[in-house]
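ADP-ribose pyrophosphatase structure dump, as promised
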Amino acid sequence: MTGPVFVYGPLGWGPLLRAVLGQDGLDRARIAYLPEHEVTAQSGAPLMAGLSPGTGRVEGWLVSECDAAARLAYFAEAFGMGAPTPVTLDLAGLNAEAQTFPGQPGPEPWHQGGWANLWGDLILTAAAEITELMTRIPAADLGGRLQMVLSRASARLAAGRGVPADLRSVTEASQVDEIASDISHAGYFLSRDYTLRHPRFDGSMSAPMRREVFVATDAALVLPYDPVTDRVLLVEQFRMGPYGRGDVRPWMLEPVAGRMDAGETAEQTARRECLEEAGLELRALETISSHYCTPGYSTEYFHLFLGLCDLPAETVGQGGLASEQEDIRTHIIGYERAMALLESGEADNGPLILSLMWLERERARLRASA
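structure tokens r here:
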């Protein structure tokens, strides 16, 4: 896009414009109005909004500088805001021609304050990654990976809350000297190279070191358990990790698992995934743990639960979403057989091992209260 562009609503939010254009770019933008329109949104305060005909006028920003307009067009395409549409604006009492994006309108008025409280930090965190990807990935391709970008942003925000440090060092990440950071791979998954120095336990700083990190999302995992019949449900599916390692049998037995979407809690993800992968409605969730999986090189973080439910009589079933190319087989087995998987080594999936060990400890309580 080379001509002037008018942005409004979420894309015209000042902090996001500053993140995309820089302060100089924001200073060169001018406030303008689109008559006979209003900004509306879908129910549930979605990430994006859109234009609807109305009796009022929409306040936004007119961005005329070509590179800045192109950057905003990239964001708009990645977020699915539709093809550019010509509009006539009111610019300080004069008409101005520009293009805008119709967005994702809905039945509800959009309010910046409520939207910013709910989505502002997430969109700013995601914008930092999207800005880095502009020269690497076409906007249309990024749109297909947008949920992963948003999920990574959500995980980064969650990590910023931290956990207690009663035994370990209270040294914070802000004391690490980050010399350089760059995306080394940007596909469906993302890898990042860091060059940094970190504080040592003796008070000195380490020598500069280069490290690669696999930037993953947070995930929720659930072991469904029926305390009345004393049975569990396991998921079986082909996994690339074992295949890439050279495992002779790269089909794994696992708990139900899924990536946390932006805006979801771990509990919401757990319940959603049980419906999608196994057709199960959970009565309650018991928290097992929240933990890093491989902190030496991956950001992946697991929220592990046991899900109390009524398991069907069928012992083998099918599940998963065709849209995600999932080919899932479910197994419903008794407690004793599940524990035998630990003894034989057939249970070689970390979350499954941890879940079964937790169930062994808590089984009597769960059955007594069923």
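Residues 176-215 form one domain.
lmk if u need the other ones
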